[in-house]
Amino acid sequence: MQIDLKNKTALITGATGQLGRVMARTLAECGANIAIQYRNNEAKANELLDEIHAYGVRATIVQGDITSLQSILAMKETVQDQLGSVDIVVANAVVQYQWTSILEQAPEDYESQFESCVMQSVYLAKTFAPAMIERKWGRFIGINTECSMQNFPSQSAYVAGKRGMDGVYRVLAKEIGEHQITVNQVAPGWTISDRDRENKTEHSESYEQTVPLKRRGTDQEIANVVAFLASDLASFITGAYVPVSGGNVMPSI
């Protein structure tokens, strides 16, 4: 048994980011054609494009603003011209900001999280779901976070945005499920990425002691779950919030 995404096209938002780049490589390794969305880092997007081509699949880069419906519609046209219809949408991009307490957090930070978590999800659905409905196959995979369950101090804007995203994805799963389109979320814990490897910051004893598996997860472990949910192996899973956090958070029944 293997994950086979041949003849599928995946759009990954924030694909040049720490987790997005590994998701792009992993889906390409499984045979998917890849649309690499980026906002500002064109150099990294082109570097990733070369890496993706090495897997023998087709790929393209698309610059765009995931908080703008018009920008996402333009991205769709570019991908359609280069790769055909999008089968798999991975909503990975999010606006970065400085975390602080609710009393000190700027209102604009809550707005940026709403736009990049909730409205990105809405715009992606409006843009790409109709063609999936026609084909009776599709995947929406939102990248959430363990923070949505932790609700620790200073996380308020991030948690508010990701919890809003969770609501959109659960409703979307029920609205389009009859068309054999699955809608799921992957919720990473504090994940080891290229930045940690470069800075030698892979370990945090205080964090690792809170995790049942006693370690931090890796970017590849997150990408593996994304690939699984994108495949036919996960054809009867929808509406799920899947923590990939070593048991650090556990949804209750």
UniProtKB/TrEMBL annotation:
Which InterPro entries does the record cross-reference, listed alphabetically?
A: NAD(P)-bd_dom_sf, SDR, SDR_fam
**What top-level branch of life does the organism fall under?**
Bacteria
Q: What GO MF terms are annotated?
A: oxidoreductase activity
Protein's UniProt keywords contain Nucleotide-binding: no
Q: State the Pfam families in the record.
A: adh_short_C2 (PF13561)
Q: Which UniProt keywords apply?
A: Oxidoreductase
Report the PANTHER family cross-referenced here: 3-OXOACYL-(ACYL-CARRIER-PROTEIN) REDUCTASE (PTHR42879)
The family line of this record is: Belongs to the short-chain dehydrogenases/reductases (SDR) family.
* Name listed for the protein in its UniProt record: SDR family oxidoreductase
- Which source organism does the UniProt entry give? Cohnella endophytica
